[in-house]
């Protein structure tokens, strides 16, 4: 049988083989808590024992001839690194798409989530039935109806996979704990690019403040943790999903966000006027706050850009822009940005 | 630059590139629970909503020219698929070792663990300090001392990584739920080989009873769920870690375990006589029960073998045989078994 040269595999079309130099996983960051007392090997109790927790878990892949900067991908609420893997309808996600584009990738389960489940703080997990809420809030449609033209496949198995990508917190959500761990990851791997989704927006900004190895952020629908310089906070924004409040940081910390290029995407079906439809109204205020945030970064000399996809003619995106039906086109937009900023 | 042919990469030495035809992840199995009532899109409560839970999560990789049977790897208690990835000291684990040997691999997070965290039953997660207990129970040594000659690297970072691979249950452990999901995985992927570790031993046997697509099992230190034909149960075995009781199954179900080759490994530092040292005594009874179990399978016409590694001159293995310092040699043993049984 004819064996194609490896170089062919590497310049791969979407269906060609991946050539991976190295892959693996590790934990990084976190803390160790200890219980006073003396450990008894034969009759162990908590006394004298320790717990390693609050770290993150990362799975990485290094392609042949990798570009200089790896991409770290941080999921949103109720999700894990699974967000960036296979799409709900079974196509390649950003993990493999950007590997094919010769970026090393680091997919993270944040502290107290997924495979980084060991938390130093207790929690109770209730089997909360949220499928219908997620359908609305993640803007697939208004349950049980899909939005017209939504970039989300309508096969029942697609929705099944989407719902089963949900995984709970195993400890209280803490943006400080998360950004500490992501910062430790950037200490370990060196300079890189950070992709964030939804709730990870806030920890993403905090990580860039903490660590100069974050060389750019691409944030997909950041949903909370909009940090502004103390004294420059806009008012909280009421919505049908509750108020969205900005969060203060020291002005000198905020200025650290002006050192790097930042790109933010929001998808479709976000109203401009208040509506009682909770799932949509939730994003109306987030998009509005993100616009104020981008203005603040740029006012302080930064390089932030917000792309509302419908404004450039790209319609139908849900809250999961990077796994929507048009995710290859979205990846092209991201690649163009990285090239423009000389990050590839 | 000279590009080596892909065939070279594929017959790879341990440091050569991996050529991967396809990779990705999915959920399979599980159930949907529903709350009575009518869902209100604008003011959502639990009413009328559903929850997808109790599925497993799998990450798969298909090498070029894969062997006919993929390998499914199922972790033990307090672990996730991370068990099979990079070893605590940073070398390749069974995921990548068997990929290099041209097996497709499916790494599973079982229902209610890791990225398959959505449980249909509530639980409370306490930050239980178990590091020292795990050090003893997983037979790295007697805390704080390593066993002489243990196949576990002594750098502090190795132990740090080992402890941080621990992740809690996000719902009650249920061997029936787990084996249902693994069986659904084998329905999806077709015939394959199942590797199990520790607590996964029991769900492994149950899966082989439920699904004829399980063509062989390699079990590393099965720790519980030893199923015997009703009426042929040996007595429970007391130990310093509590009693180990066999579990009854219908004789016709037990006989299904005689259709496939089964290989079981146990490592070193397992005493033959009762001892007060809990971590070691725990495995004394498990090894003894496994011997009775293998005898029962073979008495009914099966093909089960137990290899106590020290008996063949392989010393120092912990409870994590497949990630110990000699894991490449252990993989060679497994490869020889698969070849003998014409499973490769």
UniProtKB/TrEMBL annotation, chains A, B:
Transmembrane segments: none annotated. Keywords: Hydrolase. It comes from the Bacteria. InterPro entries: AB_hydrolase_1, AB_hydrolase_fold, Carboxylesterase_BioH. This is Alpha/beta hydrolase. Residues 71-288 form the AB hydrolase-1 domain. GO terms for molecular function: hydrolase activity.
């Amino acid at each position: 049988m004819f064996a194609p040269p490896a170089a062919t595999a590497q310049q791969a079309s979407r269906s060609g083989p991946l050539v991976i130099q190295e892959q693996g996983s590790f934990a990084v960051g976190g803390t160790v808590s200890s219980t006073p007392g003396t450990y008894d090997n034969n009759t162990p109790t908590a006394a004298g024992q320790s717990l390693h927790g609050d770290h993150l878990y990362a799975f990485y892949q290094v392609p042949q001839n990798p570009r200089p900067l790896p991409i770290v991908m941080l999921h949103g609420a109720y999700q894990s690194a699974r967000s960036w893997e296979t799409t709900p309808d079974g196509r390649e996600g950003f993990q493999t798409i950007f590997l094919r584009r010769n970026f090393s990738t680091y997919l993270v389960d944040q502290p107290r989530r997924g495979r980084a489940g060991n938390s130093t703080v207790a929690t109770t997990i209730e089997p909360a039935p949220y499928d219908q809420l997620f359908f609305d809030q993640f803007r697939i449609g208004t349950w049980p109806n899909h939005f017209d033209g939504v970039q989300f496949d309508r096969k029942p198995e697609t929705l099944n996979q989407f719902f089963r990508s949900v995984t709970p917190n195993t400890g209280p959500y803490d943006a400080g704990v998360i950004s500490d761990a992501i910062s430790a990851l950037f200490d370990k791997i060196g300079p890189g690019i950070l992709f964030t989704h939804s709730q990870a927006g806030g920890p993403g900004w905090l990580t860039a403040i903490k660590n100069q190895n974050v060389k750019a952020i691409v944030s997909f629908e950041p949903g909370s943790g909009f940090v502004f310089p103390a004294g420059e906070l806009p008012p909280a924004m009421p919505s049908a999903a509750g108020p969205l409040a900005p969060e203060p940081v020291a002005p000198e910390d905020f200025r650290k966000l002006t050192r790097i290029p930042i790109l933010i995407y929001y998808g479709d079906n976000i109203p401009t006027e208040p509506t009682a439809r909770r799932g949509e109204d939730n994003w109306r205020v987030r998009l509005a706050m993100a616009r104020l945030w981008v203005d603040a970064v740029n006012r302080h000399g930064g390089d932030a850009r917000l792309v509302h996809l419908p404004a450039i003619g790209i319609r139908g995106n849900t809250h999961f822009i990077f796994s929507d039906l048009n995710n290859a086109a979205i990846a092209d937009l991201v690649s163009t940005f990285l090239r423009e900023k000389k990050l590839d």
